[in-house]
User: What shape does this take?
Amino acid sequence: MLRQVSLVVLLLVAAVLALDADGPAAASKVLVASGKPTSQIVNPGILICEGGQPTGLAAPMCSPGTTKILIRNLIQEGAYQDLTGTAAAIFRGKFTAVTQCNLDDKYYGFCWGTFEWAVPEMGGKFEGSWSGVLDYAIHAGYLSGNAYGYGGKLEGLRMTFDELYPGGTAPWVGILKVLPQ
Assistant: This one.
């Protein structure tokens, strides 16, 4: 419980800092959207259970005795639902993310990866990277990332995002920001 409370406090502080990191900006230069990120695994990648064996189950992923859990090249596809804000139209596409994680025996640890976010409505895509702390045991986590726009109306734009999942059955919450490069 203490780990969950500490994680939520850390995530909230990080979200506030992320929103304020670029300082004040003219309204015409910063576009913001929020929504609920959703995704599904399309390729589970490679699961390494040091000191144990993969179980073949979603949970627990590894057998008792596992001391470290490594996830490599897990691929997810997803989109944001219920988008609102001045940048909502910019994020009406789908993303593909490749994930790597180093977790401890309690399924807690650092994850990172890359992503591509295609936005056909804007004639382009974002390509970038992300990182964060996840707790698979209580389904909580915080992610942040950066990407650059290529093609169409996305050319020359920089996107940053922060996602928070408080755990339990609550949905992920995402804040997306678009800035000129």
Q: What stands out?
A: Residues 2-180 form a domain with the AOC barrel-like fold (CATH 2.40.350.10). Residues 46 and 83 are 33 Å apart (CA to CA). The chain has one domain: 2-180.
